[in-house]
Amino acid sequence: MARDADALLVLAMWEEFRRLDWERVYGLMARPLVIGGRNLLEPQTMKELSFEYYSFGRPMDNLTPVVVPTRVQ
Fold first, then answer.
1. CA distance linking residue 38 with residue 56, whole number of Å
2. What's the CA gap between 13 and 18, in Å, rounded?
3. Which pLDDT tens digits describe the chain residue by residue (73 residues)?
4. pTM
């Protein structure tokens, strides 16, 4: 699902997405960008995992986007 992806969109409130091995997902992605459409994930947790994370419906002043350069292979 995430191998070489430039972004992941989380658009469902499924518990499976909350419990993903996000460290593994990070290692698979070309650009670790996650966009949350359901506020399922915690912005601080995603930031700590080094994801660039945006979610709809949360105030932007509480979020500090993390820009992670694309890995060169």
1. 7
2. 8
3. 799 999 999 999 999 999 999 999 999 999 999 999 988 999 999 999 999 999 887 766 555 666 666 666 6
4. 0.76
How many whole angstroms separate alpha carbon 38 and alpha carbon 14? 10
Residue 37 carries which side chain, given as an amino acid letter? G
DSSP code, position 19: T
Q: What DSSP state is assigned to residue 1?
A: -
Q: Which two tokens stand for residue 57?
A: 């419906």
3-state secondary structure (DSSP) of residue 18: helix
Distance CA 43, CA 25 (A): 16
The CA distance from 52 to 43, in Å, is 9
